[in-house]
From TrEMBL:
Pfam families: HSP33 (PF01430). The keyword Cytoplasm applies. InterPro entries: Heat_shock_Hsp33, Heat_shock_Hsp33_C, Heat_shock_Hsp33_N. Keywords: Chaperone, Cytoplasm, Disulfide bond, Redox-active center, Zinc. PANTHER family: 33 KDA CHAPERONIN (PTHR30111:SF1). This is Hsp33 family molecular chaperone HslO. It comes from the Bacteria.
Length: 290
């Protein structure tokens, strides 16, 4: 059940519980990001993992756009998703540049800092709700739970597990999202958290089929039910054609120099990190059509 969100209701339909193994999707995003600093990789992976879980709560053409502004206001993490489970994430050029100068000795708390904020826009293109909160916990998971409590007055639990190797390559990622619905008993979400933390329950459930999941959930949370599976996948709409405009913005002299030197011009999508190379013959064509 990789790259699939499993949607369930537990405790007599009073808690929505989603969980996923999104390792493959995140590996694709992280490989494209070109981030070398381990803490920066960790932060981006957490943000994207959380947003992928939130995609399961969207309907029709709804989407969520996320901006995390770190204490250094030029350092930002972006992610967005839609009801179809299309997810992407990237960091600002300033943060990308800074990450290449870091030595990975700093912590996630240090990277976030004391004056960071979460800004989320949710809804349809012409009708969006925007919420902004600070990040008092400096650990992403609890900060997003705090966001829902402050902006939507909803008790929420978010847990993401990200494993990176010494080279900052992503080895494993899974996440849990639980939210109290109207009628939930006081303390119900705390009970859910305790059960998951005591047994490492998420990793157990992700290796079960639906019948086994329902049985395991009902043993711990009465009247639980698996609702559906929702796919999630990395998606970026960039293409080589989109970057022709950049080449047309260069002067004829710059383009001519590249042609005469038989030098290619490399362009990079700042959203997904994918590179597009324009060879001298393509540059010559652009010169001829200016």
């Amino acid at each position: 059940m990789i790259n699939t969100i499993i949607k369930t209701l537990i405790l007599d339909k009073s808690i929505r519980l989603y969980f996923t193994d999104n390792t493959k999707m995140l590996q694709e995003i992280m490989e494209l990001s070109t981030i070398k600093d381990k803490t920066c990789c960790f932060a981006l992976a957490k943000a994207v993992s959380i947003l992928s879980l939130l995609s399961a709560a969207l309907k029709d053409n709804q989407r969520i756009s996320l901006v995390i502004t770190l204490t250094n206001k030029n350092h930002k993490i972006y992610a967005d998703t839609d009801a179809g489970g299309n997810v992407r994430g990237y960091v600002s050029q300033a943060l990308l540049k800074a990450s290449r100068q870091q030595n990975s000795n700093h912590s996630l708390q240090d990277l976030i800092g004391t004056k960071a904020s979460i800004r989320m826009m949710k809804g349809l293109e012409m009708s969006q709700f925007t919420g902004v909160t600070d990040m008092p916990y400096q650990n992403m998971d609890d900060d997003f739970a705090y966001y829902f409590k402050q902006s939507e007055q909803t008790d929420t639990m978010i847990q993401t597990n990200i494993e990176l190797d010494r080279n900052s390559c992503l080895l494993k990622s899974y996440g849990i999202y639980a939210q109290a619905l109207p009628g939930a008993e006081e303390g119900a979400l705390d009970f859910v958290r305790e059960q998951f933390e005591a047994e490492n329950l998420a990793s157990l459930l992700l290796n079960m089929n639906d019948a086994e999941i329902e049985k395991a959930l009902n043993q711990r949370f009465y009247r639980s039910k698996v609702l559906e599976h929702k796919p999630i996948q990395f998606s970026c709409s960039c293409s080589k054609e989109m970057f022709y405009g950049f080449l047309y913005s260069l002067s004829a002299e710059e383009l001519q120099k590249a042609v005469e030197a038989s030098t290619s011009i490399d362009t990079t999508c700042h959203i997904c990190g994918r590179s597009y190379v324009f060879h001298p013959s393509e540059i010559q064509t652009i010169l001829q059509t200016r």
